[in-house]
Design a protein that fits this description.
The structure holds two protein chains of two kinds. In chain A, 73% of the residues lie in helices and 1% in strands. The longest helix of chain A is centred in the C-terminal third of the chain and has 36 residues. By secondary structure, chain A is mainly alpha-helical. In chain A, α3 packs antiparallel against α4, α10 packs across α13 and α11 packs parallel to α13. Chain A has a two-stranded antiparallel sheet. In chain A, 61% of the residues are buried. Chain B is mainly α. A two-stranded antiparallel sheet of chain B has the order 1-2. The two termini of chain B are 35 Å apart. Classes of the chains: A mainly alpha, B mainly alpha. Chains A and B meet through α14, α17, α18 and α20 of A and α5, α6 and α7 of B.
């Protein structure tokens, strides 16, 4: 009944942000080519487009709705992640123009992230493996260009090639997995799959497909052992794109993971398949990410490894959101949602801290002559604001109160304890302690060491304002976590596990029930 | 002014002022106010204000006073967090300790320190963290205020420390943060062990619920273990103490005063406030192990202290050793023991602050901290010698000084029925060890022949601390001016006052201690 949907486009508001940004991006590309927009103009117009899309998204409710023959879903998680991606894109585009070292960039450096953002937003509301794959490719392909944007610099080219090859490989895994699932089940729609799994369990071949899909997703979130690309690409890409990869791409992978693992394969037989895979991934990410960061001297590589470690922390939250952990009786719904709240809070705090770090690094790069830790020596005396912002961001990433990162880590610990994930709990704490060491290193360099060159580093007003806002938010969300809760309150995916047994009467109806309405 | 002390929860507590004063001072310093004077004024204000709070606290009645309680965070899936301030007879003496030691720490800090504004901001942040931790009645704030103080500690040791400051500051910070993460796991476990509807971070509510519905023995044992390891690391309980001596030896004197004097008491306060009353069965299960570890503090740390060859390291070990008395008093869990432990917390805070401050003076003025190179300084610095002797006597538990009152109560506590007198004997033996190393320190530093170079300025460049940049070391000087002497004299007077009139503290503490659950 596709024509019916076109005649009464009740879905239009839910799809308008994506539509708007797509059209806007094309207009800007053409404007860049034919109307001689300066990069600054393109950037401002792109930011304006993002702003309109964000306002539109904010006005939408968060009750679950399926549309486009069940291809798309709108729910609290979609809203949260859409807003998240819009914020990330705005920061990236702003950084590209304002903060970045002077590269010979054209206006498309501000437009390409818009396409990436559309892809990410589609990922957040995909309810079908087909749409998921197309959206993911849109993300990945625009990233191929962005990563290698400084095409005359060798490290950038190396990063671009690495990202291209490994990104292609991961897409291949994902498609192969989807093919297996489609081959056995005859459908790629999540809600239909949920119904089928609910009555017949997950067939072995579909389970194999799921594992391949997880491999593909693992690349996106830099989960060990699929993390090899991360440090090299982080080092080679322009700082704004590194931040985009580190926050945007990771969040995109996580919403995929939530939709697939928790939403679609959330029943007993499905969980039994992904639970060991993700647990091993989380354990390895926590250990390798945090231990391998210790010897790093290059700050971008250090943040690359730390981002792998953060994937580990967030995965603990994802695992804790599972309804059907093999070793546990079904808990109350409130307990289940804590896992997803932890993931959302972690992402918000990670966004704030990571962007603060990369904005500072982008500002410093041309002035310090390099981004090794020793280049930071005495920064607190040359640029007090930059040093303080960077130190607070690192402290937040380390999870020390009263900053935002503490709330995130505390929630992960709470979830792990609540869901009896004791091995993960222990490793979370161990990894957090190991992480202290490398996060304190740059702080030591900035505050203890005497600078070789004492000339003050001047920072422009826009950068000062943005950094101050980010730092204020880091402190605010740390001291008053209620401020995040406005954002994350509804960020819960409709899930299969909720449909089973005694949990049928939960406030959020399961995807399966919705599917009937939409059909 | 009786309106200040009513049992009713008020919209705004007078305790808030204690937190806002250092905060305001920090903001003023960042706005280019004179750092030392601003910090000193804020701390002096807090000290006077605390005395007022104590004066109007209804001591005979005990229990929480000056309360304010606002819902702070109410998120789905997370137990509610309240911004709940309040003090009782146990935390109020610690608030007093915080304000007096903070004032002394600011007052002894040199006026010409490098990067002055930063230095005083960090000191104020440490003081603020401690103050917040002692006045918070919600686990969330109780936890974050303490951790909040650790980053300034890291920077203070790293930037203004001496000797092996780089290594020491990393060791202290990582060790303590690791301890607080274990503590966090324990606190989360405690809250999550309750059924979902009862979960809260609010300490009095939590206590009321747990008193009515005790946890199962298994979870009590596990959670008690986690909390005790966490708190044990923070306080330097026997196998977890190795961070402290090098850390205190390298820290600038003011930071060592604040940490050894105040922040370390946080863990003991947590044992009294949370661990033992809420997990009493777990406490009974682990009591023996805990007592054995305490014996480790007395004997192991005590003998190591005897072997130290440098003054600051010796003081670091001795402050670890003295945690044994405090822990012993708490582990007896009877009225006299806990009261004694709180008295001793104040007393030890005063004497540790004195000793670390004076040791800083000696090191700074003589350019030397090894016993073998020091001697005869009493001739050049008689006032310093007197003050140091007072501090040492306090630390030894000589009657007339505050530590004696506390230690005596702890000894009595461990001889009462239901406790283990063996450990009292070990504790008494501990005072002998203390007497040995403290007297030897006095003798080696202040008496005997004075090396020549303390009498005349010498051209030998010895760089003990990065602050000593002089190529020629001046001759040994005394704490001469009133401003230099005042902070030490203040601490000595406080110790003397509580030594001769221990009832000042006991009347304040005891009624609240009798209200603690399970206390014998």
């Amino acid at each position: 009944m596709f024509h019916f949907h076109l005649l009464s486009p009740y879905w239009l508001p839910y799809f308008a942000p994506e539509l708007l940004i797509t059209v806007w991006a094309m207009v800007l590309l053409l404007g860049d080519a034919f109307l001689d927009f300066t990069p600054r103009q393109t950037t401002n117009l792109a930011l304006a487009g993002l702003g309109v899309a964000a306002i539109e998204t904010l006005l939408l409710g968060s009750s679950p709705i399926l549309f486009w023959n069940g291809m798309c879903i709108w729910d609290g998680s979609a809203k949260f992640f859409d807003l998240f991606f819009l914020a990330v894109a705005a920061l990236v585009i702003w950084m590209g123009d304002e903060v970045q070292a002077p590269v010979d960039y054209g206006g498309e450096f501000a437009v390409l992230p818009l396409f990436t953002t559309v892809g990410l937003m589609l990922l957040a509301s995909a309810n079908d493996f087909m749409l998921l794959f197309v959206a993911l490719e849109l993300v990945t392909i625009s990233f191929y260009i962005l990563v290698a944007y400084r095409r005359r610099s060798l490290p950038a080219l190396e990063a671009g090639v690495k990202y291209l090859i490994l990104g292609g490989l991961s897409s291949a895994f994902l498609v192969m997995g989807v093919a297996y699932i489609f081959g056995v089940m005859g459908t790629t729609r999540f809600d239909v799959l949920v119904n089928a799994f609910h009555f017949g369990g997950v067939p072995t071949a579909a389970g194999f497909g799921l594992v391949l899909v997880l491999v593909g997703v693992g690349f996106k979130i830099a989960m060990v052992p699929f993390h090899i690309w991360a440090p090299d690409v982080y080092e080679g890409a322009p700082s704004s794109i590194t931040a985009f990869l580190s926050v945007g791409s990771k969040a995109g992978g996580l919403i995929m993971l939530l939709r697939i693992a928790i939403g679609t394969f959330g029943g007993d037989s499905g969980t039994a398949i992904w639970y060991p895979v993700l647990t091993v991934g989380a354990i390895l990410s926590l250990l390798l990410g945090n231990l391998a960061a210790i010897p790093q001297r290059n700050l971008k590589r250090l943040l690359g490894y730390s981002s792998i470690g953060h994937s580990g922390f967030i995965l603990v939250g994802v695992i804790g959101a599972a309804a059907a952990l093999p070793h546990l009786a079904r808990p109350a719904m409130a307990d289940l949602n804590t896992g997803q709240v932890a993931v959302s809070v972690y992402l918000v705090s990670y966004l704030l801290a990571t962007f603060t770090c990369f904005i500072v690094l982008a500002l410093l790069r041309p002035r310090l002559g390099g981004l090794e830790i020793h280049h930071l020596a005495g920064l607190s005396q040359r640029a007090p604001l930059l040093a303080a912002a960077f130190a607070l961001a690192l402290i937040s990433l380390a999870g020390i109160p009263p900053l935002s990162g503490f709330i995130a880590k505390a929630l992960v610990v709470l979830v792990a304890w609540n869901r009896h994930l004791y091995v993960l709990l222990f490793l979370t704490i161990f990894a957090a302690v190991a992480a202290l060491y490398y996060y304190l290193g740059p702080i030591k360099a900035m505050y203890w060491s005497e600078p070789l060159d004492r000339t003050p580093i001047r920072v422009g007003r826009p950068a000062t304002v943005v950094l101050s806002i980010l730092v204020a938010l880091l402190l605010l969300t740390g001291f008053w976590p209620q401020s995040i809760s406005v954002l994350v309150n509804g960020a819960i995916i409709a899930r299969e596990g909720a449909a089973e047994g005694t949990l049928a009467a939960q406030p959020l109806p399961a995807a399966a029930a919705l599917a009937g309405v939409a059909r | 002014m009786t309106f200040l002390a009513t049992n009713a929860v008020q919209p705004i507590s007078p305790l808030l002022v204690l937190l806002l004063a250092p905060l305001a001072a920090i903001i003023l310093i960042l706005a280019k106010a004179p750092p030392r004077r601003t910090a000193g004024f804020a701390c002096a204000f807090n000290l006077v204000y605390t005395l007022g709070l104590i004066w109007w606290y209804p001591a005979a009645q005990g229990g929480y006073q000056y309360e304010m309680n606002h819902l702070w965070v109410n998120m789905p899936g997370l137990p509610p967090i309240h911004f709940h301030l309040g003090v009782d007879g146990i935390s109020l003496p610690l608030v007093f300790l915080t304000s007096i030691v903070s004032f002394a720490a600011v007052a002894i800090s040199p006026g010409l320190v490098r990067r002055q504004p930063e230095y005083y901001c960090y000191l104020l942040l440490m003081s603020l963290g401690a103050m917040g931790a002692f006045t918070s009645l919600d686990l969330f704030f109780f936890y974050i205020f303490h951790d909040f103080a650790l980053i300034p500690t890291f920077l203070l040791i790293g930037i203004w420390g001496s000797q092996n400051r780089q290594f020491a500051s990393f060791q202290v910070t990582i060790y303590l943060l690791a301890g607080s993460l274990v503590l966090l796991a324990g606190l989360v476990a405690l809250v999550m062990a309750l059924p979902p509807s009862a979960r809260t971070f609010d300490i009095p509510t939590l206590q009321a619920y747990i008193s009515a519905h005790p946890l199962s023995l298994g979870s009590q044992n596990l959670i008690f273990f986690l909390l005790t390891v966490g708190f044990g690391i923070l306080v330097g309980l026997f196998p977890f103490h190795s961070w402290a001596p090098p850390g205190y030896a390298s820290a600038p004197p003011a930071a060592a005063m604040l940490h050894a004097g105040i922040l370390k008491k946080y863990a003991l306060y947590g044992m009294i406030r949370i661990t033992i009353p809420m997990l009493h069965d777990g406490f009974l299960f682990w009591q023996w192990i805990l007592l054995l570890l305490i014996a480790g503090n007395f004997l192991y740390a005590g003998f190591i202290t005897l072997a130290q060859k440098e003054l600051p390291t010796m003081l670091g070990f001795s402050s670890i050793m003295h945690m044994g008395y405090l822990f012993l008093g708490i582990a007896c869990w009877n009225v006299i023991g806990v009261t004694g432990a709180v008295v001793l917390m104040v007393a030890h805070g005063l004497s540790a602050a004195l000793l670390f401050g004076l040791s800083g003076e000696i090191t700074h003025r003589s350019g030397e901290n090894r016993f073998s190179e020091l001697g005869g300084l009493a001739k050049a610095a008689p006032v310093l010698a007197i003050l140091f002797s007072f501090a040492s006597m306090a630390s030894m538990g000589v009657p007339g000084l505050a530590n004696f009152a506390g230690e005596l109560m702890v000894f009595f506590a461990s001889f009462t029925p239901g406790t283990v007198p063996l450990f009292a004997l070990i504790a008494v033996y501990g005072t002998v060890i203390t007497a040995i190393f403290q007297l030897r320190a006095i003798k080696n530093v202040f008496y005997g022949p004075m090396p020549d170079r303390f009498a005349h300025a010498t051209p030998v460049p010895i760089s003990v601390s990065p602050d000593v940049e002089a190529v020629a070391l001046p001759a040994m000087t005394d704490v001469s001016s009133l401003a230099e002497r005042a902070p030490y004299v203040l601490l000595v007077l406080a110790s003397l006052a509580f030594g001769f009139m221990p009832f000042l503290l006991i009347h304040l503490i005891q009624p609240t201690v009798t209200l603690l659950p399970f206390v014998r």
